[in-house]
Amino acid sequence: MTGVTAATPPPGLPGSPGLPGSSGFPTVPDSADAVLDGLDPEQRAVATTLHGPVCVLAGAGTGKTRAITHRIAYGVRSGVFQPSTVLAVTFTHRAAGEMRGRLRGLGAGGVQARTFHSAALRQLQYFWPRAVGGEVPRLLDRKIKLISEAAGRCRISLNGHELRDVTGEIEWAKVTQTTPDDYPAAVVKAGKDAPRDPAQTSRIYATYEQLKQDRGAIDFEDVLLLTVGILQDRADIAETVRRQYQHFVVDEYQDVSPLQQRLLQLWLGDRESLCVVGDASQTIYSFTGATPDHLLNFRTLHPNATVVKLVRDYRSTPQVVQLANGLLDQAKGRAAESRLQLISQRPAGPEPEFSEHPDEPTEAAATARRIRQLMTPVEQGGEGVPASEIAVLYRANSQSESYEAAMAEAGVPYQLKGAERFFERPEIRQAGMALRGAARAGSGNDQALVGADGLAAEVGAVLATTGWTPEPPAGSGAARDRWESLAALVRLAEDFQRATPGATLVAFVAELDERANAQHAPTVEGVTLTSLHTAKGLEWDAVFLVGLTDGMLPITHAKTAEQIEEERRLLYVGVTRARLHLTLSWSLARAPGGRASRRPSRFLDGLRPGSGPAGARRKGGAGGVEGGGEGGRRRKPRGPVPCRVCGRTLTEATEMKLRRCVDCPSTMDEALYERLREWRLEQAKELGRPAYAVFTDVTLMAIAESVPGDRAQLSRISGVGAHKLAQFGDDVLALCAGQELPERDGEAAEEAADHPDGETSGK
């Protein structure tokens, strides 16, 4: 797609400047050809290619959802597709709801748009009596409690972090269709760095599966597995499904897991009426089993496929796009080879801002002040950006507390994304009941509606009976959150009234019901605070990417080259959420007065002002593990162990070994850590033992953070006991000093591996 020139943004495209896209009530096109109006040449190519396999490679902000929904609508309106025979699948209820809303607005409301899990669950519930008999097993809301019980039955003690690790491994095994017995071998085959002894995880996994069976329960992964099993074993049922669904569209195809791909193949059978859309550069969910391989291999599996690339970015300014492209220019690996060079279609905007701060509270306060400035009306010297069009994005949810406090202190309304769904909030449920009652009673019979002129006034009058007032309460907190939720309903009523003159309260209640079913929530006025992962698929006028330090992004536990690249892609997703204003910030210490040991994320090298090219990092370690004895003796910590970054008392084994909270940024020498891992792998191969029997990952991280200069310093690191110090100490110290490895005694090394010096098997 090189040579694409700037074009006028198609009318109605979300994110295009100067468009009224806030109402959510577009005019339904009056013909099939009218569905194509406003599409750019590449989007039109997607929409009009209705036969055969189609692969859409769509960069961030290029209108992929617009392209595929218009393709479905054009197919329906032109008579090529029957609405009931089309199944569009995506990965979140929000995305599926948005797709249903758009299709409804295009006159294709009968099309099914669902997540993989919801589509599979409907089929499982429908076919279970016929295929298996009896009641469908109970679906577990959360599996972690049962996994904890399974671990206890295996006499394996897990703390909170370890339990989450094991849960993640079991989920990965299931979506990759790996049985408990096959899990250890699958870990080796996949080159996966398992968080603990695979044999232990295998035992917990097997016990967990038995507990579910005993209690007649299934988990979310089982929904897919059981549906796949039924479709594989029952040709008659598979044929019934294929008669129902004949045309498939898969959004976010880079996030498909092997299990989801298998289900898709069973739905398709030997047909090729499939359209997939994705971007390998936005693959950020590999921990769930997602892989871009299916997208990258699509043309190999479907040689006759039509491939369309969308690179015209209608969302972001040239300045934001330039930064995003520069970020990917440094990427490596297979996904990077297929990266798309975005071309902004918007007018020039402000340059991205880079901001360094002495500590986290100062960074959060500066962010809140800048947001207040953006929100200030233009006539008062500000930018006039609505609070709902501003987001603060961070790597870990634990970072939100500082920003919640800073927003409250600055009087900035905010909302935490990823929390309770809008239509499930208590105040919205209460409002819905009140509106339904008023709609049934009618304006002549409900005292609250007397004197109300127009739909918006009627909605406001009804909500007043629940305690809502036109003026917001002072300050922030729960009362302000409740007010903002109800105010969103009033604004929605205003939009509905403008789009549908003469609209009644009965029609508005029906609209609310449809939106609730589609999870198509109205906009709440408040700055969004959320994680980078949760921000996927969203966009704002102004985005603040905060806490961008090595150890946080990339996060400490990203060790392999591919894991590091996924962290880079996560930052790319964050950058491409911004339409106009983009601020990237970091702090040198966690708390005021703390040691300024942090450094900006390596991903910003060559992009932020004053930084050298990517990879030009200083060598050597920073910081150190405190305490310890003299000589070769290893002294156990006495009393409470404080985090050496934030001072919090540590309670978990992993944190005590690192001498810091797992969420506190690391000062680890990444190059040294990789050398230590390579050395450990060679040792493990020679000894015929798993790598963790030499040193665990946590011990290697502690070594790479402290960079010991002699045996006394090395001995103070938890996990380096007398035996391992004697046999591996020279190697480790040589690696820390950047020297050649000394000659080793193979038999002595094997003896050392038989004495783990109190290390646990696992990270």
TrEMBL record:
Chain intervals for the UniProt region annotation (Disordered): 1-31, 592-641, 739-763
Positions with biased composition (Gly residues): 621-630
Enzyme class of the recorded protein, top EC level: isomerase
GO CC annotation terms, alphabetical: cytosol; DNA helicase complex
One Pfam entry name: HRDC
Residue intervals of the UvrD-like helicase C-terminal domain: 318-580
Keyword Mitochondrion: no
GO BP term, pick one: recombinational repair
Binding, ATP: 58-65
Enzyme nomenclature, EC number: 5.6.2.4
Keywords assigned by UniProt, alphabetized: ATP-binding, Helicase, Hydrolase, Isomerase, Nucleotide-binding
Domain HRDC: 666-746
PANTHER family: ATP-DEPENDENT DNA HELICASE UVRD2, UVRD / RECB / PCRA DNA HELICASE FAMILY MEMBER
Protein name: DNA 3'-5' helicase
Native source organism of the sequence: Streptomyces xiamenensis
